Design the sequence.
């Protein structure tokens, strides 16, 4: 089977200002990122004939979507041959995977992909809200939960993905002996790397003692196992490979994608309670390439909750199933000079909850050698970017020739 | 059953003809799931077609109410104000079928006593027209 995603390449990236609570128009942030990505690729808005985003103009949790396809389409007066926005797809990066398919099929030549959030400003100073609670459910008053997953979670006071994912982590701890002292290294590693990222939200040093002393959220997770809501937008250009080589930057070829979900699409009904949909997405990625985990120079793996990054490390084969705890303990293997540098921009735990697209952005930064103080040494040429936890999971393997 | 004054706030489910066996079975003291009349597969959440044999003979049936804690978390974060943090959220697997599970709360014991592998049995907490299926430690 020919992996047709190799006809696609990443050719430009852009990011808006990122901050805890910027109080700025989310569409303006979105357009800042989009225009930066277009310029970065050496293109103009007239060259963009495709547009893709996650989750689209979704009206659920406040701040969850800063703009949909229609707003960006119209604001930039794009002339589109193909566009796609929506939430039912293999994780946040599913929109980018769709864009790869679109250029491989010839539906479009240059697809602008973006993700925009303003959860920091939307949630205000009252702290992070639970799902369904922020929207008015918390006051009683006749609100009734319906549909998956709300109907079978909210009545049991499970208001947040923090609790849903915590139960997967707890089962992993039970079956494999994983400890909080081990899991801590996802957060500590992210904080260490955030120091080199001027856009990161939290950059001051954090110690293992700081982590262990943090207040519990939903066991085994403490505050530092949860990513930080922020405002910001990220964008990238997916181009048809034949034209990509004539652009401003060396193209980053899409070597393989993973979009599979072979188990049940559910937070609590997945067959293996120690992992999630990402298991299947990761498996599919390696089914589509001759490259192996040992060939990967840098990994940017979703850490909406710390345990998700550990689960991606296992699923992608950087260590064996159940071996993630000992693998990350001490943080040397996942450091910038380690065997698999992880979340080099601080991830979402310290960098901010850009919701998946920060990982792909950073994979491109690293492959283009522009990481500055956080650049992985040794001229990295292969990177994996992955997003999603629970029933969401999608990943891309990028290579620079 | 807990006294009304002890019940925590809960977001209640929207009860429909499709799910009312699950949310109102507690009125008769029964935890009910759909079961395929052709091949015997238990189905949750509800679906009009059996996922195993694709037959349409699914109908509500009571389970024993006995199960095991497959995993859990103690929720400390006050997403909603409540007097009883931390409380235990769990995934309980029923003894009738491997993988027949639901998210729930373990009640009737200190939250710190909840553990994976704990044997539990169903109890119901009524709110208006809904009977929330919760679990307490089974008396061994």
Sequence:
């Amino acid at each position: 089977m020919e992996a047709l995603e190799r006809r696609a390449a990443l050719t430009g990236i852009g990011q808006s200002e990122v901050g805890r609570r910027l109080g700025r128009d989310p569409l303006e942030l979105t357009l800042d990122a989009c225009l930066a990505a277009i310029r970065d690729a050496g293109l103009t808005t007239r060259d963009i004939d495709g547009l893709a985003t996650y989750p689209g103009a979704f009206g659920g949790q406040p701040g969850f979507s800063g703009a949909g396809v229609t707003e960006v389409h119209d604001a930039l007066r794009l002339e589109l041959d193909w566009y796609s926005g929506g939430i039912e797809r293999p994780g946040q990066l599913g929109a980018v995977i769709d864009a790869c398919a679109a250029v491989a099929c010839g539906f479009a030549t240059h697809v602008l992909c973006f993700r925009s959030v303003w959860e920091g400003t939307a949630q205000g100073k009252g702290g992070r809200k639970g799902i369904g609670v922020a929207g008015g459910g918390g006051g009683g008053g006749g609100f009734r939960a319906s549909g998956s997953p709300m109907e079978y979670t909210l009545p049991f006071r499970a208001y947040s993905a923090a609790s849903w994912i915590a139960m997967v982590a707890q089962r992993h701890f039970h079956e494999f002996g994983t400890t909080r002292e081990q899991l801590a290294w996802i957060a500590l590693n992210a904080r260490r790397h955030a120091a080199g990222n001027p856009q990161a939200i939290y950059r001051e040093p954090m110690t293992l003692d700081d982590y262990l002393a943090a207040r519990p959220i939903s066991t085994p997770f403490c505050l530092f196992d949860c990513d930080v809501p922020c405002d910001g937008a990220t964008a990238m250009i997916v181009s048809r490979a034949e034209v990509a080589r004539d652009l401003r930057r060396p193209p980053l070829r899409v070597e393989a994608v993973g979009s599979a979900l072979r188990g049940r699409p559910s937070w609590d009904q997945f067959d293996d309670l120690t992992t999630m949909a990402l298991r299947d997405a990761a498996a599919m990625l390696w089914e589509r390439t001759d490259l192996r985990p040992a060939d990967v120079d840098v990994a940017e793996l979703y850490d909406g909750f710390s345990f998700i990054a550990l689960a991606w490390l296992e699923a992608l084969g950087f260590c064996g199933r159940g071996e993630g705890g000992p693998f990350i303990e001490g943080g040397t293997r996942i450091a910038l000079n380690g065997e698999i540098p992880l979340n080099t921009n601080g991830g979402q735990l310290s960098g901010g909850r850009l919701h998946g697209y920060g990982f792909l952005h950073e994979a491109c930064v690293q492959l283009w050698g522009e990481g500055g103080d956080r650049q992985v040494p040794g001229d990295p040429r292969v990177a994996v970017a992955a997003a999603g936890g629970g029933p969401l999971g999608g990943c891309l393997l990028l290579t620079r020739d | 059953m807990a006294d009304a004054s002890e019940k925590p706030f809960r977001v209640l489910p929207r009860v429909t003809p499709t799910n009312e066996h699950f949310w109102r079975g507690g009125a008769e003291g029964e935890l009910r799931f759909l079961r395929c009349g052709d091949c015997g597969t238990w189905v949750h959440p509800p679906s009009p077609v059996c996922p195993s044999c694709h037959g349409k003979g699914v109908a509500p049936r009571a389970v024993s109410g006995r199960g095991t804690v497959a995993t859990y978390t103690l929720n400390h974060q006050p997403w909603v104000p409540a007097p009883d943090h931390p409380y235990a959220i769990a995934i309980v697997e029923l003894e009738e079928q491997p993988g027949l599970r639901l998210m729930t709360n373990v009640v009737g014991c200190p939250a710190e006593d909840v553990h994976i592998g704990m044997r539990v049995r169903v109890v119901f907490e009524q709110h208006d027209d809904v009977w929330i299926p919760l679990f307490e430690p089974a008396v061994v």
